[in-house]
Structure formats: C-alpha cells, structure tokens
Amino acid sequence: MALFFYSLPDFWLALVLLLAFAYWWPILPAGYPVSMVMHQYMTSWPALVDRLRHLVLPALTLTLLTTAAVARFQRQELLDVLPLDFVRTARAKGLDERTVLRRHVLRNALIPTITLFGLALPALLGGSVFVEKIYSWQGMGWLVVSAIGMRDYPLVLAGVLVGTVMVVLGNLAADLAYLAADPRLRVR
Questions:
Q1: Which alpha helices (DSSP H) does 22-152 contain, by range?
Q2: What element of type H or E holds 43?
C-alpha cells in the first residue's frame, strides 16, 4: 500500500480524492471555504467546523503521500538494522522479540528517518502548489507561483526566504530530535 501511494503524483491523488469524497459520495466539501463575509454572520464554532471540513481533503492528500514515503523508508531502515550483531546479541540474552524491536532495532532505524522528517517540512511547501490549485486554496505555494507569473520579484524573494527558513527550521528540529533518539550525541 505504501508503494502505491508513494508512486502517485500529488495532483492525481488530489483529483481522485476530490472526485470520491466531494462528488461521488458528497461527504466533504470541495474547494475553498465560504468567504469571510459569510463567516462574520456565523458564530465562531460553525465557522471553525466549516474551515476544518474544507481542510480535510487537502490535508489528507498531503498526509497520504508523506506517510507513504516515510513508511517505505522506515521499512528499509528496519530491514537494514535487523541482521546486525547487536540485535543478535540482544536476542541471545533472552530478551523477548517486542523489546528487541522497540529498544534496539527501532531506535537505531529511526535515526535516518529523522532526517527525512526534517526535510518533509519544506517539501510540503513545494508539493502543496498543485494541491492548493486543485482544492482552490490560496496558500504560500499559490502565492509564490502567481507572483512569478506577475513578475513580482519582492514577493518571489519573500517566498524563497520563507522556504529557506523552513529548511533551516526543519534541519534544526531534526538535529534536536537526533539528541533525543541517539544517546551517543548528548553533550556531557
């Protein structure tokens, strides 16, 4: 299943989800939520529920694609760590399989996956351009693409700056997560 979602282009998955849940089985709304003029006549709770209902399909699209990539990567890392000597030693000491997997295998397999999570934050910005266009959300990706079309260079530079800050923050979060995952990196 992870390979299936990993191989799908984000715009195609967005179109399929839009067709399935907004047109064939109309349980979720399509497109951008009601305008702010309409929201001023709603109390805060219905306005929030309306926004969240409109956010489900774009969030589901981006989440399925990111989760599929992480699942494939994590599976490969687990398969790489399983035959190592320290796993065999832990099993030989008599630890049950669940403890071996949780304490020894998963902890060591998570370290490369943390890097993937750190880079997923800026990748969501770039990959969300098509999803924003399909679901008619006017977000950062849409703003930068329209600024490129209008040759609004200060806005393009601001979008590049925001993307750069997201890369730096993603790498900082990954480095901090390394400290929690790998005790060898802790400063004494």
A1: 36-39, 44-81, 85-92, 97-99, 106-135, 140-149
A2: none
CA–CA distance, 144 with 160 (Å, rounded to integer): 8
Cβ contacts of residue 144 below 8 Å, gap of 6+? 129, 155, 156, 159, 160
In the numeric block, the tokens 């071996």 are attached to 100
- Amino acid identity of 53? R
Parse the chain into domains and list their residue ranges.
2-17+42-185
pLDDT in tens, 127-184: 688 888 888 888 888 888 899 999 999 999 999 999 889 889 988 998 888 888 877 7
* DSSP reduced 3-state for 108: helix
| pLDDT score at 130 | 84
Q: Which two tokens stand for residue 133?
A: 């266009």
Q: Enter the pTM of the model.
A: 0.76
Please report the pLDDT score of residue 155 as a whole number. Answer: 95
**Cα dist. 17→59, 99, 125, 139 in Å?**
11, 39, 20, 19
Burial class (CB in 10 A: 0-12, 13-18, 19+), 55: middle
Residues listed for the chain: 188
